[in-house]
Amino acid sequence: MAMRLPIVCGVLLLVTALSLHNARVHAADPDIVTDFLVPAGMNASSVDGSFFTSTTLRQVKLVEGTAATVTPVNSKVFPALEGLGVSFAMLQYPPLTLNALHTHPRGSELLYIVEGVLDVGLIDSTNKLFTQTLHEGDLFVFPKGLVHFQINWDQKQTVKAVAGFSSSNPGLIRLPANLFKSGISDAVLQKSFGVTADTIKALKGLW
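^ that's the sequence the OP posted. Answer follows.
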């Protein structure tokens, strides 16, 4: 299904406005004193329209599997974004898949549903959970740094979405891996969660 380009462009404009606000208030991305940043080793006089173009999403294919997939377009893969305070991603959620609990420490996320129905949730700093069922054409914002998730409960349809971020490199911390694959001692995890050593071992085996 073709994306509604005017709406997608609107998403990007909203993210740009959000990024300008964040730059003033939170300084998530450092301000630059030039129109744009030219990567080290690149001659500024050689910059042309191709520098401001990314073809990363051109070859993205429909995925199948047991987990959601994210194809990011950030400053790491699109150097022209460096210092501009924006980035983008394409997301696909095959049937019954989850984008597990995670955070973006350096940027807010604005999610747009291109196709399908997606359930989302976020948790604020008071541990209050906010959930919503999103339909095609809906937008949902995840404030910077807050834990959130998305899940496709449909047994047949893959959900497609795109997201804009208020940082050229918003970062990604996946909580399960962050907790159970980072080398934190079992003793610390046991005391933190109030569970047995066997439970911690089982959880580590999942990730």
